[in-house]
Amino acid sequence: MKLRRLLAWSGLALLAVLALVALIAGGGWWYFHPEFTRANGIVYGTRHGHDLRLDVARPVQAKGLGVPYEEQVSFLAITAFITRALTHVQKEIRKVVTEKIAMMGQGARNRPRLATAPLFAWRTGF
CB 3.0 to 4.6 Å from 121: which of 48, 86, 106, 126, for a disulfide? Predict the structure, then answer.
């Protein structure tokens, strides 16, 4: 009789935990996915003869100040930014290494040659 009672209480506890997890997951989904309306293609300016368009998403029930954010970024803009940043970092590394070698007092013959290939060869065509 005790074994049946233990199994019954264990089953009820398991169901209660599963119900609580489902309730928390459903509440989280509801909180992080609010209803909104979307207006696509609003022209806010022109550049080089092309319209600059903006998509606006507004919550159905606004609760305060809005936060503008960029939803989509051009892949080419990201790669250009990363390439510029890494080129700058590479130049700084070369400068520091050259200074360290000069501080060590090594002559020009003993100084190791620094690599001249860029960090990202796919971007520069090497």
Answer: 126
